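Hi all, posting the design record for the shared folder.

TITLE: backbone redesign
STEP: 1 of 1
STRUCTURE INPUT:
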């Protein structure tokens, strides 16, 4: 198995298993640079760049600059997705983002990790695990989601949270580490004012 096959698997791995060639990151950095320097009205150009950068994208995806990722090919947007300003995705493993997901400003999705033992970090040993964000999730501003995490359908992650473990569907979860506070119920329904 080569490095690309390993990176695209939906399983955790140790980064010391292979030497990653630099050209893969150079390509994504160039495309991110180009994307981040588009004008706000250049929707077609943005969609074209995303189709080259991401593993799966569509014309309904909205990603506001500044956007940065490690490789791009491991990011999969499955339907309408809104990614707000200053998002970073360290996609050393697959990142699957379901339809109708809202990602607030300053969010970091980090598949990559480092060894706990200092001598192993000094040897550049690290880890990587996939991230799955199911449909209808809202991730609040400046939250961080770590590798190996699945956020269940319809859940909300509070601003500033650090998600280290799976979050079940239909809940509000907050904190560092992120913990479930309560279920989302019909009492949370907002009645809009009609003008």
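Okay, here is what came back for every position:
SEQUENCE:
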């Amino acid at each position: 198995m080569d490095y690309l096959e390993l990176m695209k698997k939906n399983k955790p791995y140790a980064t010391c298993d292979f030497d990653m060639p630099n050209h893969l990151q150079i390509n994504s950095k160039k495309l991110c640079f180009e994307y981040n320097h588009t004008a706000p009205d250049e929707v077609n150009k943005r969609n074209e760049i995303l189709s080259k950068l991401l593993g799966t994208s569509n014309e309904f995806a909205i990603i506001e600059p500044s956007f940065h990722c490690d490789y791009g090919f491991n990011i999969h947007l499955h339907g309408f997705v809104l990614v707000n300003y200053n998002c970073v995705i360290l996609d050393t493993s697959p990142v699957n983002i379901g339809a109708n997901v809202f990602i607030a400003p300053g969010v970091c999705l980090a598949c990559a990790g480092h060894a706990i033992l200092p001598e192993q970090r000094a040897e550049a040993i690290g880890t990587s695990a996939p991230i799955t964000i199911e449909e209808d999730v809202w991730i609040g501003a400046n939250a961080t989601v770590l590798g190996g995490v699945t956020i269940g359908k319809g859940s909300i992650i509070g601003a500033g949270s650090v998600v280290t473990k799976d979050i079940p569907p239909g809940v509000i979860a907050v904190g560092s580490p992120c913990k479930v506070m309560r279920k989302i119920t019909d009492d949370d329904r907002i009645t809009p004012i009609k003008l």
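COMMENT: The mean pLDDT is 93.
Let me know if anyone wants the other runs.
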